[in-house]
User: Which sequence fits this backbone?
DNA sequence: TTCCAAAAAAATCTCGAGATTTTCTTGACG
DNA sequence: CGTCAAGAAAATCTCGAGATTTTTTTGGAA
């Protein structure tokens, strides 16, 4: 997150807030109190009231009059909708991208994949490495950048970021260990370079859907545990 | 534009700004100076600095540090991209909508169309009637509401609003007179109620593309006029 | 114990003033 | 005549204080 000096305070705070929501440092549904954020981010209320509305526009936060801002709430239904929308749009984009992509695009994709393949998934404290998240986002963005339609690319990015919020459901990252996510990216990259349109569409669809199914399983499992923790008959 | 009393000042100003941009009362590319808007809308700078970022998130305005806000600039290329994106997404949604829509959806669609058919297109001063714009937006929204995927519906709405900005290219509304826009809506509505999936997809595609082509023609014609006005050899 | 109401605490909402930066004007120089 | 620089004007950016609303706490009654 390169916070250039030629940036307004609000712009900087917005980017930090966005990153913190996407990376799960603000729990879904939790309130974003201006007073609390003022202290945490070292900014005035005015600056925060300028940064927060942008999160609303990006679908990462909600707002209710007299009740302030909240991180978007998560639900299995919404995740399924997001996934369906992503598969629909990203497969279209990747098809265009692989069909029309230039040599420069090929190079960029290879570079992005190389970077992603070398960054470790986990950091020191068993947390997902932030550098990996950045590289992952970049890989998926570049993959679709062969398509010239900026509108659709922006929408794809927006949906992907909204979906990132759900990654924090997998608090215990066991779901990742049983999955060769690196191989999935390698397949996508290779099929794209080979200009194998059906192959890349298939690989990308599986990639997106697999993530969602693992998250939904993880969510269901935790729901059951919570029920047992609260006892068999108490609300 | 129902501005309820249980609304913050920023929310109200945001809606007014959004309507004014979409309906062409702020020219594309024009600056949105806080000082000027303060007077025009009767709000403090803080309120405006809270409302303007939401326009950025919605793709209706841009922002540059130390240079303030601007209405999005328009260009033939961007309009073509917007149109392509709209056709892609709206045809998908209308297919789902017509396939899965309930009886309630049918009723809502008929109601929306009835309303649209009765509102006059032009107001007193040869300007496009604002009530028509509202009814038109509602008709297209309801048409897609049979589809259950909220994410995609929201995206479609967002794209449609971004495209509305281009309507003001047709300053002289001659382009509308040679076109039976009411018949187009009628066809879309009928095909939808008949559950004629290919028919409604075809009608909706033509409807969207026709609007764009007329706008592009109008734009091209005006560009040439401007060149002639400035003389044949001066910049 | 449970429920309700009033008071207290905390948060949001709105506003205007001061510091910083950009933009426009003016005037001199090549 | 065109170009460039210094000064003036205007706009943005940031901040904290006061008014209003919501939330929490407290105390009492059924």
Assistant:
């Amino acid at each position: 997150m390169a916070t250039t000096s030629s940036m307004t305070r609000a712009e900087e705070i917005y980017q930090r807030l966005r990153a913190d929501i996407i990376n799960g440092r603000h729990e879904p549904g939790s309130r974003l109190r201006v007073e609390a954020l003022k202290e945490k981010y070292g900014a005035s209320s005015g600056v925060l009231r300028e940064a927060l509305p942008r999160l609303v526009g990006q679908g990462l936060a909600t707002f209710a009059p007299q009740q302030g801002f909240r991180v978007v709430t998560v639900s299995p239904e919404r995740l399924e909708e997001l996934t369906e929308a992503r598969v629909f749009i990203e497969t279209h984009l990747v098809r265009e991208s692989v069909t029309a992509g230039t040599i420069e695009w090929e190079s960029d994709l290879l570079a992005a994949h190389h970077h992603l393949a070398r960054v470790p998934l986990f950091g020191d404290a068993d947390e997902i490495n932030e550098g990996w998240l950045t590289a992952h986002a970049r890989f998926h963005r570049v993959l679709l950048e062969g398509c010239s339609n900026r509108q659709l690319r922006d929408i794809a990015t927006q949906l992907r970021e909204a979906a990132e919020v759900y990654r924090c459901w997998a608090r215990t990252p066991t779901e990742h260990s049983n999955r060769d996510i690196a191989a999935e990216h390698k397949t996508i990259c290779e099929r794209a370079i080979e200009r194998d349109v059906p192959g890349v569409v298939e690989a990308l669809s599986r990639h997106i859907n697999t993530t969602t199914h693992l998250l939904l399983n993880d969510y269901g499992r935790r729901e059951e545990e919570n029920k047992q923790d609260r006892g068999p008959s108490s609300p």
Residues 33-35, 45, 49, 65-68 of chain B lie near DNA strand D (CB under 10 Å from a C1'). Strands of chain B lie at 31-32, 61-64, 68-71. The CA atoms of residues 61 and 92 of chain B lie 28 Å apart. Chain B touches chain A at residues 6-8, 10-11, 46, 49-51, 53-59, 65-66, 78, 81-82, 84-85, 88-89, 92, 148-152, 154-155, 159, 162 (CB under 8 Å).
